[in-house]
Amino acid sequence: METTSRRVMRSPRFRPRPGPSRLRRAGLAVAALMIGSSVLTACGSDGGGKVTLNWYINPDAQETVDKIAKNCSTDDYSIAVQLLPNNATEQRTQLARRLAAKDSSTDLMNLDPIFVPEFASAGWLEPFVDDLSSQALGEDVLAGAAATATWDGQVVVVPQWSNTQVLWYRKSLAEAAGLDMSKPVTWKQIIDGAADNGGKVGVQGNKYEGYVVWINSMIMGAGGNIVTDTEAGRDAKIEIDSDAGRDAATIIKQLADSKAAQADLSVSNEGTSLAGLLESKANPGPGSFNVNWTFVYKNQVDAEANGDLVKGATKDLGWARWPATVEGEESRPPIGGIQVGVGAYSKHTEMAQEAALCVTNSDAQEALAVEAGLFPSRGSVYESKALTDAFPEDLLALFRESIDAAGPRPQSPYYSQISSAVQSVWHPPSSVEPDKTPEESAKFLSDVLAGKRLL
After folding, report:
1. The pTM is what?
2. What percentage of the chain carries pLDDT values higher than 90?
């Protein structure tokens, strides 16, 4: 493999094609598993023909990604899109199995930022070096996205789009609760405000990664961490048994015991927690506060256009910074998104890195935002006319601010074990006790990392 000496390549420019995008989610998980059962082989280079680069993607915005792949293909190679499962953990499992087997057909891959350290430390990602690293991670990349793109001093992935959570709410509910949403609000304020006015607080409380996202950001908002010194691997310092951990547990208990808790709290996810945010025939109540990702705006606008919400419902939609754990302290919103990596065992790493720079360039990021609500990792794209025409400027400013101020989940090669250990002790939300749960989870996590207990 070439890692230090290569020519500088100029990426072809992606030009988005007109036409609305519809996210095709139904059946994608099944299709992805069928695709994953067969080994796809890049072809054409040995015989002197055109090379096919396989790009494994998470099934979000598939129509837009297909166009990006087509427009970033060249006379030398074509980019073939292959679907991964819907679930982030299953995506990681499928890619890890391929790369552990030194699969040469995995040329490009979409990675959730939480899996980058694991893949990089295992030697599965081809680093971007010299001029390629500056193209991949220039000054235009937002701080929150850049923080998850490097490992051991090397740029190992290219940020494609970034995700963050904000506080979505029904303006009429906030007004009834007497909250000034132009100022920072706390978790306690929105829980009390919703409970006192017949509303709900929507969160992701199922036993999955979304629950850890909520826990981690509350802990970081109180000045703490789940673990630190993650470069030490299994010897990372476990910090969850702390005042910050107890602050997070207090909020979970308050919500679980409150009238503001959704009935499905213990199994709620990004989609189900949106129920009742805005007015529909099925949910005519006072509405909710909801912490959720950037997709919500387009989702709710489309829902009104499709008749799933009552006419004019989105006029009552408000947005604000993610709630503070501790009054007077800045919140640390969650961050997610997608990074594009190049497989270390690909037969065409030079072409694949050229392709990775193209599918993550500003034009591609603009198309993903406008067509699918997946927001840019490059700051300049937020100022493009296409985005300011498609989204309210104050919402774009909030997304950009939240990505820059985000609190990333632990950057550790053992993140999968860390996340699963936290889920095991903190779920269901109704079982969380401030005086017990952080301590119990610290002990369990310590044993898991030491190999003394199994998940």
Report:
1. 0.85
2. 83
